[in-house]
Amino acid sequence: MWMDMIHFITLKDVYFLNIYYFLPYFTCIVSNFSLSHSAGLSVPLFYVMLCFTFLQQMKLLLFLMVMGTVSAEIQDLSGKVFTFPRETDTAHVRLNPIKQDYNAVTVCHRSFTDLKRDHTFFSLATPFDTSAFLILWQNQEIDPHVKSERVEYGGWDYKPNMWHSICTTWDSVTGLVQIWFDGLPSIRRFIISGSITGTVKAILGQDQDTHGGGFDIHQSFVGMLTDVHIWDYTLSPCEIRHYTEEMHFTTGNVLNWSALDFEIIDNVLIENRFQICH
Ligand SMILES: [Ca+2]
C-alpha cells in the first residue's frame, strides 16, 4: 500500500511542492532582509534561518497533504463488494483507469443480482463514442458493445441470487470479441477492429449515453459487484480460469481491484463480500 502511494507521487507533484516551497522562501528572505536593512540591523541571517525553518514545516505539511489525497483515492477492495441498493439513474462508481488508448481490452467482474430486466455491469465511454466498451445484460443475453458495435450472446444459465463471473476480451487487430460466463467460453465473433482512442470514462452500474452521464434507470444495476479488473491485452484461457476459480491470477494492469482508483457517486456502499455467522 505504501509503495502504491509513493508510486502515485508524480513528477508534477514534486514540481508543485518545489514551486510552492521556493517562492515563499525567497519572498520571506527578501522582505525580511529589506526590513532588517531599513531598520539598521546587521543580522538578517536570523530571519533567513526563521524563513528556512518555517518553510521546511510548510513543505512537510504540503507533502503529507498530497500523500493523504492519494491514499483516499486508492483502496484495496479485496474481500469487499460494491452494493447498489436501489434502482436509480444516478448511483454509480467511477473508475479511473491508468491509460486512455486501447489496442485490446479484457474486463472481468463478478456480480450478484435478482434483476430480471436489462442491467449494466460496465460502461466505458469516450467523447466520440459513449459505447466504446460496454457490457450489459439485455433482452436475456449478454451483449458486449465495442465502439458502438454490438454482439449478442444468449443461452447462458444466468440464475438470480448467485455470483456469476463474466470476462470479456477484445482485440483491435482481429476485431474479435469473446465472453467467458462462469468460466464457459462463448464463440469468438467479429465485432469491430481499430483502437479505442480518446479520454475514457469508466463506470460501474450505469450505461453512459453521454460522456460520463445520460443514465437510464431501466438499465441500472441493483445488487453487488466485485473483483473488477481491466487489462490492456486479451487474457489467455488459463488466466481467465484462474480468475473465475479465484485462484492466483495476474491482476488487472489498467485497473486492479486490490489497488482500485475509484469514486462513489450517490448511493453505493462498500461492504464485506462474505457475511460471517458467529
Ligand atoms: Ca442507455
TrEMBL record:
Regions that span the bilayer: 14-33, 45-70
Entry keywords, A to Z: Calcium, Disulfide bond, Membrane, Metal-binding, Secreted, Signal, Transmembrane, Transmembrane helix
Protein name listed in UniProt: Pentraxin (PTX) domain-containing protein
Species the sequence originates in: Oryzias latipes (Japanese rice fish)
Chain's gene name: LOC101165585
A molecular-function term among this protein's GO annotations: metal ion binding
InterPro entries: ConA-like_dom_sf, Pentraxin_domain, PTX_dom
Recorded superkingdom: Eukaryota
Any single Pfam family the record assigns to this protein: Pentaxin
